[in-house]
Amino acid sequence: MGVVAQAGAALPPPSGVLAQQSAEMPSIQYAAVAPLMIVLGAACIGVLVEAFVPAGRRWPVQVGISLLAVLLAGVFLGLHAQEINTGATTLAETLAVGPATLFLWGTLLVLSFGALLLIADRSIEPGGAFVAETNSVSEGRPPAGTPVDAPGAASAAVMDRAAGAVGMRTEVFPLTLFSLGGMMVFCAANDLLTMFVALEVLSLPLYLLCGLARRRRLLSQEAAVKYFLLGAFASAFFLYGLALLYGYAGSVQLSEIAAATAGSLRSDTLLFAGLGLVVVGLLFKGSVGPFHLWTPDVYHGAPTSVTGFMAACTKVAAFGGLLRLLHVAFEASSWEWHWVLWTVAVLSMVIGVVLGLTQQDIKRMIAYSSIAHAGFLMVGSITLTDRGLAATLFYLLAYGFTTLAVFGVVSLVRTSEGEATDLSDWAGLAKRSPLVAGVFTFLLLALAGIPATSGFMGKFAVFSAAFSAGMAPLVVIALLASALAAYLYIRVIVLMFFNDPDPNGPTVSVPGAFTTAAVTLGVVMTLLLGVVPMLALDWASVGGFVS
Amino acid sequence: MTPTHYLLLSALLFTIGTVGVLVRRNAIVLFMCVELMLNAVNLSLVTFARIEGSINGQVMAFFVMVVAAAEVVVGLAIIMSVFRTRRSVSVDDANLLKY
Fold first, then answer.
1. What is the pLDDT of residue A324?
2. Rounded CA gap, A283 and A316, in Å?
3. Mean pLDDT computed over A392-402
4. Chain A 93-152, residues with CB within 8 Å of chain B CB atoms
5. Under a CB-based contact definition with an 8 Å cutoff, are residues A257 and A332 in contact?
6. Mutate which of A203, A228, A270 to disrupt the B interface (most B C-beta within 10 Å)?
7. Mind spelling out the 3-state secondary structure of A443-511?
């Protein structure tokens, strides 16, 4: 944050005299940014821990620091929520913290707490789901020509033995915290440049996290390369959009772009090209519609706990940024771009549901389901009403908990070669472990949007808000898509309950305390938000974004 | 040359970068094309700053450079780790994740 703050000070006012700008420290409203500073500060401490604490003791220290930091940030958020709810811009107007941003921050902190619990688990995979500490042995070993290219099993087992299967790389904790910090800045950024920097701060650690799986190294690395190349490609689009909008409005401040859309002398080409490119960058991050291509591969290849973190938190951050951008900067021009995002929402729902039906791998199926959910979220995002905003925020929270718990459960079903993610392995799971199958069924029903789950309340809130905003045709399409999507989930439920288990099939691991806690958190919140949604809906409706 | 020409040049460079990402096979070359896109944006930013008569755009170009440098660090690390296991950086060889 220091960098952003200083540069904010160095930026002269847009009226712009070139010379003799004395750099003055911007005033910082510490109460507003305390959660952010705690998370990023803890990430920096985590890096120091990597450097100075002996390898054997790093894991407990890192887990302690990161969980404590997220808790502490949550406490600060709660303490100051009342006074910041009126809205505050700080750090030379680069960050704007208001009610909606606080809700997003709260969501991100709770979800990442759950994700950190999943990441920290060492009971399911001995030593943890990430590459081992003494990794140099295995990294150096494959000579050219040996069949290390076999996906997963054999080579991974060889590598595991070579690595001695001791503890895991504890860099994952500071990386997760940096990513979380970037996500928080992303939802609060008041200008496009801060948003771009935050986008990179949240993405770069994720690229690395994707490549750190202990098992199935090749799949994991392939996922990392794909995510990285496509992610860098998408952020280049975002950046070009930023440049065009700067040319249009003479500033990248969201409020000044909004002012310029009301009446600028520049050509509208700059505005719409810029808006389009920026939105493409954001839709990519949110894995929406036609920009989803990375999603199934990366969800499949990444370690399952990281997939949980990505699925829950990145979606919140991306949609938080998108909502903020549309509400603050482009509300005035909405009737010109509205229909484009309508199309995107429809495409996303259709792609998610139809391709999801063809999947044979549980992680890929959930990935396509997340694309369909991104379509539902788009429906709420483009209403541009306060009610639509509150509904979308609620949906994000509800979906985050459910998907986190889903990936927690997915990591439990294993064969000797690691996680059994193929759908055929899940046949007859209910006979092996009724509890896990029951929990998973509940979560899938929540994803499908069955009443008494948070998924239903989220969909109901979003669709009714969209309906009252005059988007009836889109709501009808969304209802059809969610009906079709229900088949996606019921297929898995039928497979688990009404098929006979393969005698050589996977076993269900008994989860350790961490995973149990994370899954319980997700399941309880899914139920709670389904039964008493007002708990969160009231908070989400407090107010909108400030600028 | 008027500033518009620089904007056109920048758009051209950006397009070359985009097409490069879409058609090339080597991960390193792909990555260089992304860098070309980022630098095309830098040219745009500086040109717009010149048109505006303000320095904001130039400062933004510095931010882009710093971010691009960070991206290089992460990107090359990932590509290196893939090269070590596969002995290839062709993105066509990475085909384990598919339907």
1. 92
2. 12
3. 94
4. 139-140, 142, 144, 148-149, 151
5. no
6. A228
7. HHHHHHCCCCCHHHHHHHHHHHHHHHCCCHHHHHHHHHHHHHHHHHHHHHHHHHHHCCCCCCCCEECCC
> DSSP E strands: which ranges in A259-340?
none
Contact assignment for A225 to B82 by CB distance below 8 Å: yes
Radius of gyration, CA atoms only, chain A: 23
Q: How far is A466 from chain B (nearest CA, A)?
A: 34
pLDDT score of A153? 38
* B98 domain-assigned: no
Q: Mean pLDDT in chain A?
A: 84
pLDDT of A133 reads 58
Examine residue B14 and state whether it is found in any structural domain, yes or no. Answer: yes
Rg (CA), chain B: 17
Question: How many helices (DSSP H) and strands (DSSP E) are in chain A?
Answer: 23, 5
Question: Quick one: A536 exposed, middle or buried, by C-beta within 10 A (0-12, 13-18, 19+)?
Answer: buried
Domain with B15 in it: 3-86
Q: Which string of b and e fits A243-258 if b means at least 16 CB within 10 Å?
A: bbbbbbbbbbbbbbbb
Helix (H) or strand (E) holding A121: none
B93 in any annotated domain: no
Q: Kindly state the helix (H) or strand (E) to which residue A205 belongs, with its residue range.
A: helix A192-210
Q: At what angle do helices B27-52 and B56-86 cross, to 10 degrees?
A: 180
- Rounded CA separation A94/A15 (Å): 18
CATH of the domain at B79: 1.10.287.3510
Residues of B whose CB is below 8 A from A151? 96
Residue B91 inside a domain? The answer is: no
Token match 């718990």: residue? A405
**Both tokens assigned to B89:** 């950086």
Among the partner residues A12, A221, A242, nearest to B85 by beta-carbon distance: A221
Query: Distance between CA A368 and CA A485 in Å, rounded?
Result: 10
Judged against a pLDDT cut of 70, whether residue A326 lies above it is answered with: yes
pLDDT of residue A544: 76
Number of domains in chain B: 1
Q: What is the DSSP letter of A419?
A: E
A451: region left, alpha or beta (phi > 0 left; psi from -120 to 50 alpha): beta
Integer Cα distance of A530 and A7 in angstroms:
45
**Residue A314 and residue A107: Cα distance in Å, rounded?**
11
CA gap A218, A301 in Å, rounded:
8
Q: Where are the alpha helices (DSSP H) in chain B?
A: 3-23, 27-52, 56-86
Answer for the pair A58, A120: CB distance below 8 angstroms, yes or no: no
- Model confidence at A54, pLDDT cuts 50, 70, 90, reads confident
| Closest Cβ opposite residue A222 in set B55, B84, B96 | B96
> How many Å apart are CA A545 and CA A522, to the nearest integer?
27
Residue A268 has pLDDT above 70, yes or no: yes
Nearest partner of A156 among A416, A425, A512, judged by Cα: A416
Exposure class string for A370-392: b at 16+ Cβ within 10 A, else e: bbbbbbbbbbbbbbbbebbbbbb
pLDDT by residue (tens digit) across A90-110?
A: 777 888 888 889 999 999 999
For residue B52, the model assigns a pLDDT of 86
pLDDT band at A476 (very low <50, low <70, confident <90, very high): very high
Mean pLDDT of A328-337: 84
Q: Where are the domains of chain A?
A: 27-136+168-540
Q: Is the ipTM of this complex over 0.90?
A: yes
